[in-house]
Please model this.
Amino acid sequence: MTLFVPVPNYNADQLKGSTLILPMVSIGNIPQLTADLFIHTFPLDRVGFLDTDTVIPVSSLREDTQLGATVPIEVYQSRDRQWTCIQQRSPTIKGKRKSYVDELVQFASQFDRVVLLTSMDASSRLDSQINSVPFRVLGQDVTRSIELGVPQLEQTEERLHLPGSGLTRHVYEKLQDKATLFIMFALEGDNVQDSIEFGNYINSVLEIQKDLKQWTPPKSWEFLFGTPFNADLYH
Model:
């Protein structure tokens, strides 16, 4: 079975030659929030989805006013075909994590360049990381990040240690010959501002949109943390 299912009239060969932006499910869901900003600001078109049983099924109305429904892992692309971005809307099923990693790597392997986005538990930072910017970078093409004052990730163990980052390490290690890993330290909570700062950093490095003035969040963000409370109840 083919993992990538394109929308009608989209040629899957147009994925090749594009850079893949791959947000990993991690603490605060900052990568997914950042992907939301990319999709709705640049904007990116929905070109297909990944047909997989490794994540929890989920479906809802589309936010772009088009007919149809969202599915757990969707694929978006810029109109110049330069950038492709995955959006994952549900977590991985516990007993299928290895299959999930294998399928994600299989899809990502067709791209010449992969940009992995993840977040790490800020409570597990080293002292040097506390007194520094909240970002780190690792892998290929790190020069621009270093010029912007973002250090490479400090490694204190032989095995890559990324607390709070879910399956990031497993995916990165299989793609590290073509991948750049962008990391943000974070805690659970209202992570909207974190995603904006993460998006600013990534856009500064990749220059997806050089003259970016402001981000356009999706409508769903209006209810991201529930509906506004009625202040009169507390008077």
